[in-house]
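Ligand: magnesium ion. Inputs:
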Amino acid sequence: MAEEKQEPARHGGAHAVAAARLHGVSTMFTLSGGHVFPLYDGAVKADPPMRLVDVRHEQTAVFAAEATARLTRAPGLAVVTAGPGVTNAVSAITSAWFNGSPVVVLGGRAPDYRWGSGGLQELDHPPLLAPVTKRAWTEHQAGAVGTAVDEAFRLATAPHRGPVFLDVAMEALFGDGGPGLPAAPPGGTAHAADGPGGAAADGPDPADVAAIAGLLARASRPVLVLGSDVWLSGADTAAREAACALRLPVVANGQGRGVLPAGHELLVTRARAAAFGEADLVLVAGTPLDFRLGYGEFGGRNGTGPAQVVHVADSPGHLATHRALAASAAGDLTCFFTMLAGAVPTAMRQAGGAAGGPPWADSWLPRLAAAASGAIAADQALLNSDADPVHPMRVYGELARVLEDDAVVIGDGGDFVSYAGKYLEPQRPGGWLDPGPYGCLGTGLGYAIAARIARPSAQVVLLLGDGAAGFSLMDADTLVRHRLPVVMICGNNGIWALEKYPMQALYGYDVVADLQPGCRYDEVVRALGGAGETVTRPGDIGPALRRAFDAGVPYLVNVLTDPAVAYPRSTTGV
Ligand SMILES: Cc1ncc(C[n+]2csc(CCOP(=O)(O)OP(=O)(O)O)c2C)c(N)n1
Ligand SMILES: [Mg+2]
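Predicted complex:
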């Protein structure tokens, strides 16, 4: 008997799915709830169907959507049910807000016709989400759901990118949205037409770029900081070319890491104390002047004066206002770097500079480069440490040996991840995912699920503190059900180290900072259908990692590390 052709759905859910697909969305991350069934029905009956990935906590769904956006530079989609589904998503939405990640979260919503009479999970969500989204609103009409979802994606992907929340009243999502689903314009999807990073932005004002070029032409110790938006907006190639043409020392931040590969002669991240402390001009592009950059205070070290600060952002609303800037520019970052590379040589000629390379290439750059390679050489002792219990850095010494250039490395934890941020230098941009400035523990499994889907043939490594593991490890079940092999490494020191040591420093004692020593997080993953092992000796880490990469299933290497080792931290971020 011939298979019966399914009647295409036309409810609001089908319209929403069709609109999302126009923006390049291929996966819906979700946890079930009756209020959002039409979105699933729309996904299943779409042609081709949209992939559904069902998780064990709504925060995982949103973290996965966020990581999709940060890895693919196309927007991510999460669907959460009314009430608790939405409130469980708030921390992850806030992380996307801090990271400028283009994510759309669609929420279910109790029906309008019963509003106020005490319906199940009846909550007015947009006021809760408004402070942490570009926009949060409700759609009440079935016939307008497609347009509203399209609007949500347009907003999320326009610079400065960020999360958008839309909930849909139940009768609008279940109701007939009318004939004619949203369709692609001739020539492809709305997103594909825009290229990496989403909707095209205007370039910066040429006068602003000329002013910055003039400052650089008069500088003798400049530093260029490349942040996450350089990658997210697709400006990584232009940034690298400008840095190379101008021979600027570069410090990489967040997802700006990898724009210059590890070992590049201009990459001086490991000499950041000297670079930031002794610079006379710091040009920060694509990241806020937040605690990660000392709030934008540079210079003053070894008898130098304060540095001039230049801030460049993808949109005017993201230029720093908390400190004086010597100059600034706002607009498309690719345009900015291309214009800057052209404007600096002109400005140097006008300033009467000598022909040949820029003045900083002779002593400042080599000095920072030497300091960076000196720091890297000095790491070797701890990266190869035979200490027993294991020194956490030995884990990274072993990991570096087996990591491929296109690996995706995800960090979720305290000290254990701080070590990784310092000692694992990516070879390519877009391969490093930390939680960003919101610093929310629990990103791990959501980010790992998305990374496995976004980069099917790359290594995906999730670094978990043992404390952090508690927030999302149940979603190893999602990895198992969806056949997503990921290597998890738990740096298990039996404590919340990043809180234990600061509390001891402040009060001379600590409370609520201890976990179970030697807890078998690998057994948790095994119970959920994956695999893993516990490692207690430094020499066993390398072979365990090789077994993990070869396993073909989610695998957790539970490394018992020395709780007496505290990360040498210069700031707690407050
Ligand atoms: C959701 C959330 N809760 C609490 C914190 C505060 N916090 C930051 S780091 C940290 C300790 C992390 O411990 P663990 O993951 O075991 O890593 P370790 O520092 O021990 O290496 C805590 C509790 C946070 N950042 N996010
Ligand atoms: Mg710990």
